[in-house]
Design a protein that fits this description.
alpha+beta, 3 helices, four-stranded antiparallel beta sheet, 4 strands, about 120 residues
């Protein structure tokens, strides 16, 4: 099976979205001040300790939402962008998420996510 043999389609939901995952160290980085932590704290009032809670909100929010763009990163696969309206507690804001598919039939792996204006 070759890398990037399967390309998800813009306008359709992420393939295998129910199996989406995020590495714990990615979530830690994303919510830390050296990642996108300042944006997350300002918009959603969350901190690195809230990583699991934020992950579950993201994982639920992307279900059924169409892919807005795809970037080929051959030979490493493709990155899919999905823009969602994320709700964390009582706060709601637009969030850009990026998902990586390395091989055909892989589950999507969260690359990054951050609140957008």
């Amino acid at each position: 099976m070759s890398r990037a043999a399967y390309t998800p389609t813009v306008g359709e939901p992420l393939p295998r979205v129910a199996d989406a995952y995020a590495a714990p160290e990615k979530l830690d980085w994303m919510l830390a001040t050296h990642g996108h932590g300042l944006e997350w704290a300002r918009v959603f009032r969350v901190a690195p300790d809230d990583a699991e809670y934020v992950w579950h909100a993201i994982a639920q929010a992307v279900i059924g939402v169409p892919i807005s763009s795809i970037r080929d990163v051959s030979p490493y696969g493709v990155i899919c962008e999905v823009r969602v309206e994320l709700t964390v507690d009582t706060r709601r804001a637009p969030v850009l998420t990026a998902w990586h598919y390395a091989l055909r039939n892989d589950a999507p792996r969260l690359v990054t996510a951050f609140p957008t204006p």
